[in-house]
Amino acid sequence: MPNIQIVTDSCAHFVNSHFVQQNPITVIPNKIRIGGRTYLEGVDLSSEEAIRLIAHEQFTPVVTSPTENDFAEVYHRLAATADAIISIHPSQHLYPSWENARAAAQQIGGHCETVVIDSQSLSAGQAMLVRVAATAIAEGASIEEVIRRVRGGVDRIYTIFYVETVNSLLHSKIISGSHAILGAMLGIKPFLTIENGYLTPMEKVRTRAQAIERLVEFVVEFTEIDDVVILQNKPHMSEQTRMVQDRLALEFPNRYFPYTLYNPSLAALIGTDATGVVILETEMEEIDDDF
Fold first, then answer.
1. Residue 92 half-sphere exposure, CB side, CA atoms within 13 Å?
2. pTM of this prediction?
3. Average pLDDT, whole number, for the chain?
């Protein structure tokens, strides 16, 4: 069985905090600058503490992705014993991790096959692809099969966010100033999706009840789900999450929908007052044309 190592960065957000320790995964932390102080995401700053700090700051936090040297150091260390490295990162349109990792991978050369994959997502979506890779490795899959499964999963990640406040969206240039002003005048809140690696406004709602309805409608569109998580802005179940879970229990009586507080690298983009759902759709089996 080949020794395949997984590398990712702290944009990936895992529901199970022990998952990384239980698998051949190395997470390189982002640096988060909040209120004049710089933290290592997930190392000396938890998601709960980050959300609290960000919510009380006037300015949006600054996220610095791992550098080419950061990645190169990890790759060289792993390459000493690994047969291959699979490195999975947030969309290149959101953070520069993928570019930095790809440049670092070129330093390894032929010593160890190093494949850098753009998840075209981030947060829970990125973590789901890491989980796909870890599952394939645990099953004894070949290097080629692990890569195929991860790349195949990229197009099966679907994400939607309901955002209550738009300051971070303005700073991240996800929405324009005119749209923010119009939304404030009309009392409407944006929904976002990730499409082709971009965080993109998709529609607007006026009330929280309408937001809950839209989140439920989004999930119900899927008949086969491999992985799913509700992202929220509180460490304990929020009222929005409870309402979504209650509605989904009627639609999917035999399925549990876990929730988690989203991480600071996502909060830097969408703010600290959002609720979202991320889904990994089940891979469709190929149909034999002979039948």
1. 8
2. 0.92
3. 90
